[in-house]
Amino acid sequence: MAVNLDKEAYYRRIKRLYSNWKKGEDEFGKVDAIVVSVGVDEEIVYAKSTAIQTWLFGYELTDTIMVFCDTKIIFLASKKKVDFLKQVAITKGNENANGVPPITLLTREKNESNKANFDKMIEAIRGSKEGKMVGVFSKDKFPGEYMKSWNDTITAEGLEKADISAVVAYTMAVKEDGELSLMKKAAAITSEVYSKFFKERVMEIVDADEKVRHSKLAESVEKAIEEKKYLGGADPSTVEMCYPPIIQSGGNYSLKFSVVSDKNHMHFGAITCAMGIRYKSYCSNLVRTLMVDPPQEMQDNYNFLLLVEEELLKQLKHGVKISDAYNAVQEYVKKEKSDLVAKLTKNLGFAMGIEFREGSLVLNTKNQYKLKKGMVLSVSLGFADLVNKDGKKDEQKKYALFIGDTIQINEEDAATILTPVKKKIKNVGIFLKNDDEEDEEEDGDDAEELLGKGARSAALLADRTRLLGKNEMTAEEKRRAHQKELANHLNEEAKRRLTEQKGEQQIQKARKSNVSYKNISQMPREKDIREMKIFIDKKYETVVMPVFGIATPFHIATIKNISMSVEGDYTYLRINFYVPGSSLGRQEGNIFPNPDATFVKEITYRASNLKTPGDPSVPSTNLQNAFRIIKEVQKRYKTREAEEKEKEGIVKQDSLVINLNRSNPKLKDLYIRPNIAQKRMQGSLEAHTNGFRFTSVRGDKVDILYNNIKHAIFQPCDGEMIIVLHFHLRNAIMFGKRRHTDVQFYTEVGEITTDLGKHQHMHDRDDLYAEQMEREMRHKLKSAFKNFIEKVETLTKEELEFEVPFRDLGFQGAPYRSTCLLQPTSGSLVNTTEWPPFVVTLDEVELVHFERVQFHLKNFDVVIVYKDYNKKVTMINAVPVNSLDPIKEWLNSCDIKYTEGVQSLNWTKIMKTIVDDPEGFFEQGGWSFLDPESEGSGAEEDSESEMEDETFNPSGDEEEEEEGEDSDEDYDSETEDSNYSESVGSEEESGKDWDELEEEARKADRESHYEDDDTAAAAAANSSSSINNNNKKRKVRPPASSHPSKKKRRS
């Protein structure tokens, strides 16, 4: 048998079995030997005999008898199985085998008489302890002559039997790390099949109003596990159903796992679904209830059921008696909603592992066993026979609610859920729209159910709604009507907010006064000072300079810059100081404690480069040393000041509470942005009790607390070269000597660079293989990140929810220097793949204005104005004009007011005007100045002429009339840039052609040489107005290729 056996696992587990047996607790104390006999029966799925074989060896061994005696172990099996078992029978040189009884292997004879082998085993049983009672699994009864003859032999020998199923189950219930990882994988696959297949399928059925039988739907779930896309990369041959999926609806409910899905059609009310998937022999279980248009009472009962499960998870801890946990939950239900006690399921779950249901470890009021760390349970609780008062038909009158998860018992904390499928009302409620409700309700559609992100998500994916209105307004009309409502609220809300904020003055911080020495005793007594040389006191960061024969200290902060030059035989050192009127740097202003004092602006020192006889050194050496040391001290001081400035305003964070549990959600091999050091470093991100910790390979640590995260964004690798977890923080944190409000963790999923020198061929096997590997890598990374996110959301009880950008709603734009894809999420507008990242919180946005929206331009700009008017507006440049309508639709769905105009406005001046005089601004109509009455071209020109802005105005006729007295040169450029672009007409209209106009201009030029200045000016004005008038009559622009060559500039 070419199959390997995990010897280490066998030795560990057989030692545990013998250790518990020797303790002699419960049934173990009665038995002298343990007999496990396994026959052949295809119908038996779960049996304790096969479970203990799988636990010890990793495989089921049919027609095998195992006898565990006090000092020896005997296996009777066929020749092939004996060869397989030799791997553990030969213990020579294996330290782990110490303490394990020796194994005797007996080969089963082909004829059905195995009397000689049976006699050897009976003899061993007689020699074990008292040799009277054997422990067996009394429920396991295998058919066949072989098993019958063995059982008859035991009976004939007069050996007593005791059932040890419960104590063996308790021994196997505590899972090792390897077993836990298999069960977690099984739970993850169950979650994937439920979320990606079953839930989606139910959505489709409800969407299309299909009639589907429960049994058919259950069969389709069983077929789904044959498809790799639902298995999270697992091999389909290692995956099987623990039991046929149980789907119930329409008033017929039985909240047990022994029932089967009936053949009734699925009713659109409360739909319960139970499914469990087995991975490599280890089981998992998941139960959820989907509700279609649930009445409020049903929602309340469901929310209460979630609270009951939460209470149960708190009770399930290491060392707690199962009955105590059950009774505590019953007391909780009795206290909160006593009428539901009778409706609660009679048991709340059971232990699970290789066997789906462990009958001796059921969560009920009688079970006295204590829970242990590492046990895995299937908790399942529900309310049966509930009455729907709104129900009219029989199938609507009764309903049941049923939820369940696979959980792991911890030492002190509440049990950990291994099936993190969301189960809040917004995740399991399917809200359908009626035609008359559709215009009013935007947040009750299937998109909300799908995304679980509230009203915004629902609006963003509104096309997933079940019914589309038939007699509704056009999208543009609906948008305009909604925008009108928003405009009315906007000014009132902004006025109220500004009135509340009035009086909050920003105190301007005075520049720190740096005193060199507080008293004379601190002044250094150095030789250089006595000799009237420049001395630098590094301790007090002070330069002591001789001024009129007196040693005068100047703090390094007062020195603006220094320069040194050599001219002939002398070296000059020039020192410039900060004084009122000189710039201190960006945003610092000229803030001095005593601006009226007398200031030294500049000092220059001169020293000879010639060495005089008797001098130990050249006099200029002092200046050269001073120049070097001042530079060093200045650099050190500026670095420290910059660090202190970075720390200003940093909100002190709570300490991270480290969870020492090994099963913490963790992602390895990630890079952090911004970098901790100059070179980027890999590290791991781990979720703890109240926050994340990133640990680099060098040992650097960055802590991010959950309560400091404003937006947690997961950017999948679809269409991107990196996969990103981005955190936009409420308050900045310090690392790498800088403050940061955006921190992201990413890993690369493909080659960012391509070797252009490499020969490319369409059918190159290496390239095809590389592409396939990249696809697999993307899928693997996506699954790992999603799994991490789900675990974190479960750990934080969904207080921290990750937002996923909607790529379909994304648009190109340049918020910084380069163009990137900006994508909306449920609560923000983001780009996280480029650096620096771009994150705008939608709740903080007052309005959005579109600039340069004109028919002949391909791009426009987006200006985002915040509710905090002191905050600088955000500009997104170069947005393609074909994105205008989708952006409008998205903003409208998010209840954000938008306006548009043809000009670029001076937003710095506008915002300053509003902040300086908010009352005046709102008395004049507030933000309505951005919103023209109509969107026609005439209205555009009117609004342009009224706008008082210093930017370029692309209107036509009015400017020409105002500037009629300008020179022809101005006229030429004016017509070229604006007049002709606005004109529309026909060549048949009256007026002079271009050649005639040019000839008139030339005559006017010649005449102007012989006339005085006044006449010349008049001629120029007449010529210009003549051309202007003629041009207005024709309104035809000549071909671009004809007029530049003929046009003459006026001298």
UniProtKB/TrEMBL annotation:
Domain FACT complex subunit SPT16 N-terminal lobe: 5-168
Composition-biased stretches (Basic and acidic residues): 494-503, 989-1009
Biased composition (Low complexity): 1016-1030
The FACT complex subunit SPT16 middle domain, residue ranges: 534-694
GO BP annotations listed: DNA repair; DNA replication; positive regulation of DNA-templated transcription, elongation; transcription elongation by RNA polymerase II
Acidic residues composition-biased segments: 932-988
Matching SUPFAM superfamilies: Creatinase/aminopeptidase
Any one GO CC term of the record: FACT complex
Keyword terms, alphabetized: Chromosome, Coiled coil, DNA damage, DNA repair, DNA replication, Nucleus, Transcription, Transcription regulation
Pfam annotation, one family: SPT16_C
Keyword Lyase included in the entry's annotation: no
Chain spans, region Disordered: 494-519, 923-1051
Function according to Swiss-Prot or TrEMBL: Component of the FACT complex, a general chromatin factor that acts to reorganize nucleosomes. The FACT complex is involved in multiple processes that require DNA as a template such as mRNA elongation, DNA replication and DNA repair. During transcription elongation the FACT complex acts as a histone chaperone that both destabilizes and restores nucleosomal structure.
Membership in a protein family: Belongs to the peptidase M24 family. SPT16 subfamily.
Protein name per UniProt: FACT complex subunit
Organism: Cottoperca gobio
Gene that this polypeptide is encoded by: supt16h
